[in-house]
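Lab channel / #folding
Pinned by the channel admin:
"Please post every new chain as: sequence first, then the structure tokens as a reply. Keep commentary short and put observations after the output so the thread stays searchable."

First post following the new format, from NK:
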Amino acid sequence: MALQKYIPLGNTPPANSMKPLSFPGKGYEKAHLPDTVTRCTSEQDVDIDLREVYFLIMHFLSTGPCQRTYGQLWNELLENQLLPRRYHAWYSRSGVHSMKENDDGLSFPLSYGDLAERYKHIEKDHLVNLLKQLLLNTASPTQGLFGENTLNASAVPTLLGTGSFSLMSHERDKGYAQAKCPGHMRWPHMLADQVRGLSLREIGGGFTRHHRAPAIRAASYAIAKPSTMVQKMQNIKRLRGHRNAVYCAIFDRLGRYVITGSDDRLVKIWSMETAFCLASCRGHEGDITDLAVSSNNVLVASSSNDFVIRIWRLPDGLPISILRGHTGAVTAIAFSPRPGSVYQLLSSSDDGTCRIWDSRSSVISPRVYAPRPSDSAAGKNNGPSSSTNPPIHQIFCCSFNASGTVFVTGSSDNFARVWNACKPNTDDSDQPIHEMDVLAGHENDVNYVQFRFSQDNIVTCSRDGSAIIWIPRSRRYHGKAGRWTRAYHLKVPPPPMPPQPARGGPRQRMLPTPRGVNMIVWSLDNRFVLAAIMDCRICVWNASDGSLVHSLTGHTDSTYVLDVHPFNLRIAMSAGYDGRTIVWDIWEGKPIRTYEISHFKLVDGKFSPDGTCIILSDDVGQLYILNTGQGESQKDSKYDQFFLGDYRPLIQDTYGNVVDQVCWYLFISIFKHVAVCDTVTMITWSLVFSCSLQ
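Reply from TO:
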């Protein structure tokens, strides 16, 4: 029987020659396992014929996409005679060679075609089925701790597990301590405690024993399989506590409360445990533009286009202070992350200035930051300086770095500026503090800025259809040029072409679409930059070289909500005006799950600090809580949650303090016959009475 060499079809080039295996070419006995495999076997060893293994691999490759590998393997097995042989019957083993090729009197080799004909009962996926049977027969380390149908992250089937997750029994006996997971699969912050373990168990992770290591393993496999993180997020609680759009919705630092700010001028504090509204904070005379929570989780700040910032106590909403000084709408606020300055509050405004306040007091004057005037505005062009006033450019956004020492802003003059947050005022208190660097490179308004999570790299975006990554220079170049330099200019690619009809049919014209960037964020590990584009896409760039990694499509309308998971490196979330929320795997560039939340526009949203919940808000005053579990603790909460005095008129004094008008008149009618009652006492009793009516 002649053995024919495999000839690939078409013009497929042959693969490179492979180094022959150290296996006896014409040996009749069964192959012995290599030393590494022999050491891994148990005391009850089994002798495996490697020729059968080669045949199963060949059988598996025959129907797969790797046809060139299949052909090369055919030639290698033929050359080294590594396929099973056909042995003569014992009564015909004369030792005399027959007329068949390569017959040594005892056996002769079979080709792959002969073997496939001989073993018709072996399916093409026989090798895969054997591996599946191995997985099913190997007990999971968490078997018995969860329900039969409960999928947990630590029990995700894998052939590549180590330690207690290995399919080899001797590795499972060694324990996890001697076989650590690789660095990219470990817990991101190495802070896996019991609370984290319980949170992971709620979303599909968990631990097997009462110590830290299993929680770390569960987190590792949850990161490796991000779908396990969101498949339990299926309970959607819908609430309404505002009349108008809720453009601000954030969590507190611990995830116990949600704070919302609306165009109806109210700030409300909600309990995540019960989904009840705990407090309604009144006093603003304009739309709420931004919210911020102090790093010690004590204060909540709210800004408005009434030029005022109000500070409230968490969680009862008691007013603490009123910060007034801006002459334009306050666009963004942020508390300092510096440990010694937890009450310092940064604000940016349409009046072209930034201020750093002491949020505890309305009396202390803030530090004022203003852009350095240009030469023409400063009167250096031989003309009188009083004839021209420096132009005022709106500041849209602001952001602290991780240490709270500097902050960056974006404004309507196409520039981003970096400021020193620790610099005190000069001797002349009327003079503002100027920027330490100007980042020029955009051709339109800089509408969003963000520092890197752990370093001083900056990313800025604009409606000109681009984003820029800025990196700090070495200290030796600070005097010669700016302290930050442009590293990568991230251009938004054109949208994908629509499907075209067959040749000769009507062609679809490519309509121009806006490619401005609405929002931009860093990934948790700082490897990627994610941006929400005006043409409904989510673009992902590599932060190390500026290359485009993914252009994610799934939304059908503009997207203004973009957030990354607090500890899973692979997960990000986006929501848009199409009422759709998509959880993405940014490593693979695929959607993990899509939620059809609402028919209204989703305008804000965030991940909870523990990653088990998503909060969303829309343009009609509704709040959506997307969390795990069955929602037993929230079942008693009602859809409409308004207080009696939410929209009653207020009376305001010269300092900005407010009191309910109805309560005040009622109080006056009660105490009008009291002769001795000073104004301070009356206001105090009025506030108490107003709070009691709420």
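NK: The chain has a mean pLDDT of 78.
TO: also worth noting, The chain is about 15% helix and 30% strand.
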